[in-house]
Amino acid sequence: MTLSTLRLLDKLILGIVVAVLVLTVGVYVYNTEYFSLTYAREDGFVEYGTAIFLLFASFVLIGNARSLKARSATLAFACTLFYALLFFFAAGEEISWGQRIFGWETGETFQQINKQQETNLHNLIVPTPWGDFHLAKTLFGPILTLILLVYLAVLPLLYPRVGWIKRAADRIAAPVPGTRHAVLAVAASLVIAAIDVSRKWEVYELVFSLLATSIFLLPQNREHTT
After folding, report:
1. Which residues contact 176 (CB under 8 A, 6 or more apart)?
2. Is 155 in a helix, a strand, or coil?
3. Cα separation of 14 and 18, whole Å?
4. Are 91 and 59 in contact (CB under 8 A)?
5. In angstroms, rounded to a whole number, what is the distance separating the alpha carbons of residues 201 and 28?
6. Distance between CA atoms of 225 and 171, rounded to whole angstroms?
7. What is the pLDDT, as a whole number, of residue 132?
8. Bridge-partner residues for 132, per DSSP?
9. What is 126-150 written as a DSSP string?
10. DSSP string, 165-220
11. What pLDDT digit, counting tens, does each position of 122-177 carry?
């Protein structure tokens, strides 16, 4: 793909991010019940959009890994392939690996330890001596959100200014977001914080999947990641 094509695709994806945020605010103002039951409902437009773009992001990373392998950048290739697998896993988890699409039944084990009785890991309930440990509320909740915000909004500022961070990111081929990604990430965070409605985090996930795809296509450190 040529650089001009990548830039055009990047603008399209970021345009979708803006459209999603505007639509989210509009739907919230229009009707909060419609927001939860239709707009951001389970197995709806937002959830499947997230899965599609997480999968697309995984394919972009696989393409980047192939380029790095051709350049004999062994460590960068291995890291990028690992990132691709993580996003493929995230896409599968988002739709419970197609369980509701294909209609298979949840196994007995997952019925007992999964909060929604589905075939996925992010809704697992892990019993501990201190009580049940809900992955969705802890590891995949505020902890992951904080990590993503640091990646999207803080790393773009530190990368060109802090030498050791720049060297580390380039060494492991970590795609670094640009200023445009940081601005949209902050805007999305403000929108999500401002609205008070169930399932608003589904929109946040969709925005992240779109931003991730854009970042992997055209990161700050493209020469080290593709």
Report:
1. 155, 156, 159, 169, 215, 219, 220, 221
2. helix
3. 6
4. no
5. 13
6. 9
7. 58
8. 127
9. EEETTEEEETTTTIIIIIHHHHHHI
10. HHHHHHHTT-PPP-HHHHHHHHHHHHHHHH---TTHHHHHHHHHHHHHHHHHHS-T
11. 566 665 665 555 655 555 567 788 889 999 999 999 999 999 999 999 999 999 99
Please count the residues of the chain: 226
Q: Which two three-digit tokens encode residue 149?
A: 């915000």
Reading the block at residue 75, the tokens are: 């460590």
Q: How far apart are CA 72 and CA 16, in angstroms?
A: 35
Q: Taking 80 as the threshold, does the pLDDT of residue 121 lie above it?
A: no
pLDDT tens digits, residue range 13-66? Answer: 999 999 999 999 999 999 999 999 999 998 899 999 999 999 999 999 999 999
Place of tokens 């001009």: 4
Residue 194 pLDDT: 95
- Name which of 212, 220, 164, 169 is nearest 53 in CA terms: 212
In this structure, what token pair is assigned to residue 194? Answer: 């401002």
